[in-house]
Design goal:
The protein is α/β, with parallel strands linked by helices and about 230 residues long. The chain has a domain of about 160 residues: P-loop containing nucleotide triphosphate hydrolases (Rossmann fold). The protein is about 30% helix and about 25% strand. The chain has seven helices and ten strands. The strands form two sheets. It has a six-stranded mixed β-sheet with strand order 6-7-8-3-9-10, with helices on both faces. A four-stranded antiparallel β-sheet has the order 2-1-4-5, with no helix packed on it. Strand 4 and strand 5 form a beta hairpin. It is globular, with a radius of gyration of 17 Å. It starts with 6 loop residues before the first strand and ends in a 5-residue tail after the last strand.
Length: about 230
């Protein structure tokens, strides 16, 4: 039996666009293991699109399906639980200020996963080392250097073996030494069947014809427009 799409946006048109103009219709289908590189003009637009993929944006028409299920047809509690299968790097950070970074990293999976706290902590510490941290960061997010905060965001996104990864400018446009471990983690997740969307405003990433994307699309007023990479 053929695999079903991990994410299927079928002529999905939001009720409201990020700039409060008529929202474009967007179509994108991601199968297990596929990666879409999406050029978004700013972080606000990238976050809006990631919210759309996560079933957090009301639709005027069309559909968004995750793992074969239509977000709009699901009860709210079921949809909230299913979002536990999505790993996300938020462009805006989305850190809880009164918790330390390790608690921020562990909290989503402690809520959504049946794994024990010690097991999750061990896995998170291993991921932290893979991303270049000495271990789980215990500082407040506000006390971490920007590069370490970007690393911590990746740890949080990849923890729990997500079925879908939504990466909003994960390099923050400047942390090139994070690129290799991020691509390695992404390759491993895709090998395990995860699909991924990498939203970027970084010209070096977007123009790299060797970037391992199955789809290259530009998000704009016309929706998602496929872009061909010149050799």
């Amino acid at each position: 039996m053929p695999a079903e799409p991990v994410l299927d946006l079928e002529k999905a048109r939001a009720e409201v666009s990020p700039d409060h103009l008529p929202a474009p219709s967007v179509t994108l289908r991601l199968m297990p293991g596929e990666l879409a590189l999406v050029e978004a003009r700013d972080d606000h637009v990238a976050a809006w699109f990631a919210d759309l993929c996560s079933g957090l944006v009301p639709l005027a028409s069309g559909a968004v399906r995750f793992l074969g299920r239509d977000w709009a047809a699901m009860p709210a509690d079921y949809a909230a639980a299913l979002r536990g299968r999505i790993g996300r790097v938020f462009a805006a950070g989305a850190w809880i200020g009164f918790l330390d970074a390790s608690a921020n990293i562990l909290l989503p999976q402690l809520h959504h996963s049946r794994a024990g706290a010690e097991e999750l902590r061990d896995r998170a510490a291993q991921l932290a080392r893979e991303f270049g941290l000495p271990g789980l960061p215990l500082e407040s997010p506000t006390d971490l250097p920007p590069i370490d905060l970007a690393r911590a965001a990746c740890v949080r996104a990849f923890l729990g073996e997500p079925a879908l990864l939504l990466l909003e400018s994960p390099l923050q446009g400047q942390f090139n030494d994070l690129l290799e471990p991020l691509l390695n983690a992404l390759a491993a997740a895709r090998h395990g069947g995860a699909a991924a969307i990498w939203l970027t405003r970084n010209d070096l990433i977007w123009s790299d014809r060797f970037f391992p994307a199955d789809h290259r699309v530009r998000l704009g007023e016309q929706g998602l427009v496929p872009v061909r990479v010149m050799a």
